[in-house]
Amino acid sequence: MTTSSTSSPGEAAQRYAAAVFELALDSGDVDGVEAGFTAIAKLIEGDAALNRAMRSPLYKSEEKAGVLETLCGKLKSPDLVRRAVGVAAMNRRAGDIPAIARAFATRAARHRGATQVTARVAHQVSEAQAAKLESDVSRALGRTVKVQIEVDPALIAGMQLRFGSKLIDASVRTKLNQLTTIMKGM
Q1: Do 59 and 139 share a domain, yes or no?
Q2: Residue 28 buriedness (CB in 10 A; 0-12 / 13-18 / 19+)
């Protein structure tokens, strides 16, 4: 069995997040770095062309780093975020920046004593709806949670909640798939 010298995006994201988290702890700006990572990740994930460009091998690492530097400047990202995304881009990991941001958010939530929960929803939710969801999930789990919202129109309606290795799937897409499977068996 041969072993690849490259790691999976998930492993790399965890390593980058761990390194940046240690630096953020040292600087005392975990919240600011988390906000900066979240903002750049949302920007990348929210723009299909930018997302493809960050993942594409057709663009040079230097070009991606330059684009990310400009975007971080416009977002007024903390210096640590600017440097981290620049290093990720130069190491051909620009496409992993959203995963790095999620891994960092999980570490930050754990540091604050909260559990990171990812809620995938079909449509964008308001701040009030997000706060209510966070409150409801915290009450249901019996501990403080930090909910990260991801929009996935393919869900049609409903949501999926992921915390740790658990997934609660209350999406219409899953219900329709289950119904289709049942009908095929008839």
Answers
A1: no
A2: exposed
The H-or-E segment that residue 94 falls in is none
In a domain, 122, yes or no: yes
Alpha-carbon gap, residue 140 to 132, rounded angstroms: 12
Please report where in the chains the tokens 């493809």 appear, as a residue: 52
Do residues 51 and 120 both lie within one domain? no
Encode pLDDT of 52-90 as tens digits. 999 999 999 999 999 999 999 999 999 999 999 999 999
Q: For residue 183, count other CB atoms closer than 10 A to its CB.
A: 8
pLDDT in tens, 140-172: 888 888 888 888 888 888 889 888 778 888 888
Give domain status of residue 2, yes or no: no
Exposure string (b/e) for 109-129, b if CB count within 10 Å is 16 or more?
beeeebbbbbbbbbeebeeee
Structure tokens at 63: 């070009």
> How many domains are contained in the chain?
2
Which DSSP category does 153 fall into?
A: G
The confidence score (pLDDT) of residue 31 equals: 92
Is residue 3 one of the residues assigned to a domain? Answer: no
Containing domain of residue 147, as a range? 114-186
